[in-house]
Design brief:
Layout (H helix, E strand, L loop, with lengths): L15 H11 L4 H14 L3 E2 L13 E6 L3 E6 L5 H4 L1 E7 L4 E4 L5 E3 L2 E3 L2 E4 L12 E11 L2 E8 L18 H4 L12 E4 L5 H11 L10 E10 L4 E3 L5 E4 L2 H17 L8 E7 L16 H12 L7 H7 L2 E5 L2 E2 L22 E3 L10 H13 L5 E3 L11 H9 L2 E6 L1 E3 L6 E4 L3 H13 L1
Parallel strand pairs: 1-2, 4-15, 4-16, 16-20, 17-21, 18-19
Antiparallel strand pairs: 2-3, 3-15, 5-8, 6-7, 7-11, 9-10, 9-12, 13-14, 14-22, 18-20, 21-22
Helix pairs in contact: 2-6, 6-11, 9-11
């Protein structure tokens, strides 16, 4: 739907970057779709696919990307000088977001309804998924003409709903608050009991995408997740807010891809530019394609050894010359809960990028790397904000310390401020989108 007319001319929403972020989010209902959308943008700029099964031979200026298990992506532009001598400049983010994921045996009937068994993925705010128009997206494996295949799927329409219980049947909610059991109370309704089962719905979607010969019996497995069908939009009295699902952390993925493309149009630097977008951050990064796996380390080794000429002890030398910016969304101060924030460290939406620090290394920032990011902010005319968790509260974490530990990279943790983190629908600032891209682009420009 068109935005109200006054949004069209207000300076807060004149940024093409903000409206482009809305489109990026809407095209990325799952990590697999986020990678596919990033690949589409990279290929349009001349990046070519590389396979982990092949030998990589690279030369200055080469633009390549590699995908692992459809949910993680690394893309790079080779610099003028071997990485052993010039290092890497890397931006990291994650493609996954908290949601409800479909269990393997999804055929459930109860009390006249067909339902879809799901389980929480990540630390989501359960109550925010009630009374939302939900759809399904992800990937499906099936037996086709050439054997076992995998295809992305997105129903793109309201398909599911988890209805609230009427207050007349839970008067105690007024004084006890809402209490949800993830097993009992978060099972979406798919239809009445005679509605087609999930396998038939998936078959219809696959046929619609061109697989005319597939039957429900051909489906072998799936990775499916729910998502809110309400589109990302600008909001607030002047369009100063972005309301969207999956801002954590698709906004950072978008910023990283945008910075790589923007920097790539300029002169070739000596160092190699790189982005890495991981899956499974929200559940600890413990997977082959997560930050705790080998994805980045092996990609770096391939680039160093694949650069024409090669270098002795090249990988260790390259890592010693490299820096990672771990970009993940940050907690803006909540005006109704300001006591939950550390005094003096209360980021505000619309005031720009946030440097995140934690002495227990839940964030990997230190004086050197935080100073680097602050200097980049100075270069583009942005004043960074700062976030530290209260000393009596536990701190969340990111891919930053995991990647720093796994690979040995100097790392700074940053992000744009937001509210409603891990809600079904989140909230961020329109005016923050472009400054973050500018700072990341400056990092790639050297």
């Amino acid at each position: 739907l068109p935005q109200p007319a006054f949004f069209a001319y207000h300076p807060l929403v004149m940024s093409d970057s903000a409206t482009d972020l809305l489109a990026f989010i809407d095209r990325s209902p799952s990590p697999y779709h986020a990678v596919a959308e990033s690949v589409r943008r990279l290929e349009a700029a001349g990046f070519r696919a590389a396979s982990e099964m092949d030998v990589w031979e690279l030369a200055p200026g080469d633009r390549r990307y590699v995908v692992r298990n459809e949910g993680s992506l690394a893309a790079l532009q080779i610099g003028e000088v071997t990485p052993a001598e010039a290092g890497f400049r890397i931006i990291g983010a994650h493609t996954d977001s908290p949601n409800l994921r479909v269990k393997p045996k999804a055929d459930l009937k109860a009390h006249g309804y067909r339902q879809l068994p799901v389980e929480p993925y990540g630390a989501l705010l359960l109550h925010t998924w009630l009374d939302r128009d939900l759809s399904l997206a992800g990937r499906v494996s099936f037996v086709g003409e050439v054997g076992l295949q995998t295809r992305l799927v997105d129903f793109e329409r309201p398909l599911l709903r988890i209805p609230n219980l009427a207050i007349h049947l839970q008067r105690e909610i007024g004084h006890e608050g809402l209490k949800l059991n993830a097993q009992q109370h978060l099972v979406p309704l798919l239809g009445l009991e005679d509605a087609p089962p999930l396998a038939e719905l998936l078959t219809a979607e696959l046929r619609r995408s061109g697989l005319a010969e597939i039957d429900a019996s051909d489906i072998r497995a799936y990775d499916l997740m729910t998502y809110d069908t309400q589109r990302a939009c600008l909001a607030g009295s002047r369009g100063e807010f972005i309301h969207a699902s999956r801002l954590d952390n698709l906004a950072s993925c978008h910023a990283g891809v945008s910075a790589l493309l923007a920097a790539g149009s300029g002169p070739l630097p000596p160092f190699t530019r790189m982005i890495v977008l991981y899956d499974h951050e929200e559940v600890g990064s413990r997977s082959a394609q997560g930050a705790g796996g080998t994805f980045l380390a092996t990609a770096l080794e391939r680039v160093v050894s694949g650069f024409e000429g090669g270098e002795p002890q090249g990988l260790a030398r390259a890592i010693a010359r490299s820096t990672l910016i771990s970009a993940d969304m940050a907690h803006a101060v909540h005006p109704n809960h300001s006591d939950r924030h550390e005094p003096g460290h209360r980021p505000v939406i619309g005031k720009g990028p946030v440097i995140k620090v934690n002495s227990s290394q839940a964030y990997a920032s230190d004086a050197a790397t935080a100073g680097l990011f602050a200097t980049l902010c100075d270069r583009v005319g942005v004043e960074p904000q700062h976030f530290v968790t209260r000393s009596d509260l536990l701190c969340g974490s990111t891919i930053g310390p995991i990647t720093a530990t796994r690979v040995g990279l100097r790392t700074v943790d940053v992000g744009n401020p937001m509210l409603s983190m891990h809600s079904c629908r989140e909230m961020a600032g329109t005016a923050d989108v472009e400054p973050m891209i500018d700072v990341l682009t400056a990092f790639f420009d050297g």
